[in-house]
Design a protein that fits this description.
alpha+beta, Jelly Rolls, Arc Repressor Mutant, subunit A, six-stranded antiparallel sheet, three-stranded antiparallel sheet, transcription, AraC family transcriptional regulator, HTH-like, AraC-bd, HTH_AraC
Length: 297
């Protein structure tokens, strides 16, 4: 690995995009080498004794070696090959590789409304800044892609790298979610079966209790497990399926609001209209009229 780091300028147009990349790089830290190495601005340098406070988020991926990490919200803990270290702004922290192993690290620094919104909605937890995801080619490729784009700084590179960073964050979060079901292939198969049944019967009267009975599991356990896996309770998942399908059906000229409500087995037209407006911000009739006008049908 050839060491590389770059600290990037940001203009108002970049900031308006909602996410900016402030720095990126990759470093090989040899056994017993000083850490961090030279070549960083003074406000990024730190010692193990004093630690450091940044005013940005950083995502660090350890691809070989091991070490330790500590922060205000996290007690001293091990970092290993395949660990993600998530640094938060205004949070004192310190980390270093083991002198016997050294390590290889990839990192990006970022800030903006997008990452703030992700943190606000608790997709990542400041009390668990070290995430053991393992060595994943997808994550490695995304870090490499971001680093390569920073080398040339071609016009528009900031939004492009920001897009890759959002992709990276999404993949890390997916790894966290999937890890919570590790070794539970039977649960994944059950949830997949439940989703199939909901899709296949969305235009019929079907209940979560009936799905649980079909799967031969208890209703309370099924509801809790389904929500943990998908982020939605079974009934909410079914409603989302129906709303999405209704949006497609409403744009068919031959279909009326009444016929769509009937096709998808909503209990009444007023109920369908109220639910549709809650989910989309428009009544079914307004959505239909606007859509047909837009597409000239």
């Amino acid at each position: 690995m050839i060491n590389y780091c770059k600290y990037l300028p940001v203009n108002p147009e970049d900031e308006a995009w909602g996410l900016t990349i402030l720095n990126a790089g990759h470093t090989h830290i040899a056994k017993s080498a000083a850490y961090p190495g030279t070549g960083h601005p003074s406000n990024y340098y730190f010692t193990w004794k004093n630690g450091r406070i940044l005013h940005e988020y950083q995502i660090i991926y350890i691809t070989s070696g091991e070490g330790v990490f500590e922060s205000e919200h996290c007690k001293l803990r091990q970092v290993k090959e395949g660990s993600i270290i998530f640094l938060y702004p205004n949070e004192r922290h310190r980390y270093k590789p083991n002198e016997k192993t050294g390590w290889n690290e990839y990192w990006i620094g970022l800030k903006g409304e997008i990452i703030e919104n992700i943190i606000k909605n608790e997709f990542f937890n400041i009390q668990h800044p070290v995430i053991d995801v393992g060595l994943k080619d997808t994550l490695f490729t995304l870090f490499e892609d971001i680093v390569e784009k920073t080398k040339s700084e071609k016009p528009g590179y900031q939004p492009a790298t920001a897009g890759a960073a959002v992709h990276l964050l999404g993949n890390i979060f997916a790894e966290i979610k999937q890890a919570s079901f590790a070794g539970e292939d039977n649960i994944q198969a059950l949830v997949d079966r439940a989703r199939f049944l909901l899709r296949n019967h969305m235009n019929q009267h079907i209940t979560s209790e009936a799905i649980a009975s079909e799967l031969q599991v208890g209703y309370s356990w099924f509801r809790k497990t389904f929500k943990k896996y998908t982020g939605m309770a079974p009934n909410q998942y079914l409603i989302q399926l129906k709303i999405q399908q209704s949006k497609e059906l409403l744009l068919v000229p031959e279909n009326s609001v009444k016929s769509v409500a009937y096709l998808l087995n909503f209990e009444s037209i007023p109920y369908f209209s109220k639910l549709f407006k809650i989910k989309t911000g428009q009544t079914p009739q307004d959505y239909r009229n606007n859509g047909l006008k837009k597409y000239g049908t």
